[in-house]
Amino acid sequence: MFANVLTGWRRPGVPLAEALARAVREAVLDGRLRVGDRLPSERRLAAELGVSRGTIVAAFSALREEGWLVTGRGSGSGVRLPRDLGERYAPLSVDGQDILDLRRAVPAAPRSIVTEAVTRALGRSARLLLESGESGAGLPELRELIARRHTAEGLATRPEQVLVTSGARAALALLVAHLAPRRTVVENPAFFDTLATLRRSGTRLVPVRVTTRGWDPGQLTTAFREAAGGIAVLVPDFQNPTGALMESDVRREVAELAARHRVTVIVDETTSDLDLRDHPAPEPRVPRSITIGSLSKSVWGGLRIGWIRGPAELVRALLLNPVSGLHTPPPMEQLVACEIIPLLGELLVRRRAELRHQRDHLAAALGGDDRWTFSLPPGGLTLWLRLNGVSGETVARRAAEAGLNLLPGPAFSPDGTLTDRLRVPYTAPAETLDRVVEHLRRAYRS
């Protein structure tokens, strides 16, 4: 009986039609109702659930309007997933009824692209499944696709210069374990997972100040000198969390400082696809740097595909490291990535347009308020707010008490500074961002 799928759907204080519509949505998302399933007639369902037919009609009407049901003449109602839900950037957990969780700026999967890619990958997996499953540096096809993409962007790359990893964090962890630096130049602020990876390695962090306007040139010079013989981990393309874009002359200066002080530069390109300028174009890479990237921000973090691009001899050396295999994704995931990468151009057009709209919407909602200041970033996923007269930790704590989770500045600082900062992602839909701004204003007032 259909009623067994919706056990416990009645909620105190919630109108029956609204509670029933919500229960059907949750059943679809949980898989208790499958896309394409036919629902009982309104009369029969009313009898099963012990409600009036008018309640069923109202609930079904709301679900059809939202795109959860489709009704044909004489064929009843069938379950479907709304198109905007299946293709939107933000995961569902971001904008829950009770909690808005924006501590991570991450996407949901582009549902149709991923499901179709999985189907195609499965259809041509026979040879792969007859092999050992030990992919070493990665599937040759995937390494070729990644190398070809780098080459098309102006960085000539051969497949043997690519090592496939289970995400950008795995790539960084493997490089840090291999290079074992005593000192590391790191941005202030920097992505909190990058800081955690470096701290666990035992390296000493040498910070360089970054603002929405760029990298502090004086601190760059000092930091590279202090980290002589070590490494530098930089995000020159839409830096997380500031959104800053490193200018070409600064990139050349970084390369010169690295050569002078024997510093190995690792460039994290995780956000480089999220160029929100009117005419997106890849910037020149930092010369002689090692780059790491992934599909986590452009496609989906659940597809654990990342890579290291560097000299072929480095890739060979990394493969000799006994922990290398622990950082390699399963071959089937790599085969799915082979199906998705050729579609990245089309996908990025949609995702950039969505993010650009949400960035501008959030900026407009926050603008003209003397409680904070910010600059509109040319790309990336977040606004970096500077708060006036109150600490980011205070506002984040008060917002959390009201149901909005954000990360304050010190979470991104290697030395505990940036106490007046707050990171606000614009990955959520516009209506959710309006709720975010309301929470922020109340938290600031309190």
UniProtKB/TrEMBL annotation:
InterPro entries from the UniProt entry: Aminotransferase_I/II_large, HTH_trans_reg/aminotransferase, PyrdxlP-dep_Trfase, PyrdxlP-dep_Trfase_major, PyrdxlP-dep_Trfase_small, Tscrpt_reg_HTH_GntR, WH-like_DNA-bd_sf, WH_DNA-bd_sf
GO MF annotation list: DNA binding; DNA-binding transcription factor activity; pyridoxal phosphate binding
UniProt entry tagged with the keyword Transcription: yes
Any single Pfam family the record assigns to this protein: GntR
SMART domains attached to this UniProt entry: HTH_GNTR
Protein keywords: DNA-binding, Pyridoxal phosphate, Transcription, Transcription regulation
Protein's UniProt keywords contain Cell inner membrane: no
Superkingdom, taxonomy of origin: Bacteria
Residue ranges occupied by any HTH gntR-type domain in the UniProt entry: 14-82
Gene3D superfamilies xref list: Aspartate Aminotransferase, domain 1, Type I PLP-dependent aspartate aminotransferase-like (Major domain), Winged helix-like DNA-binding domain superfamily/Winged helix DNA-binding domain
CDD domains: AAT_like (cd00609), WHTH_GntR (cd07377)
Bilayer-spanning residue ranges: none
Family: In the C-terminal section; belongs to the class-I pyridoxal-phosphate-dependent aminotransferase family.
Annotated protein name in UniProt: DNA-binding transcriptional MocR family regulator
Source organism: Streptosporangium becharense
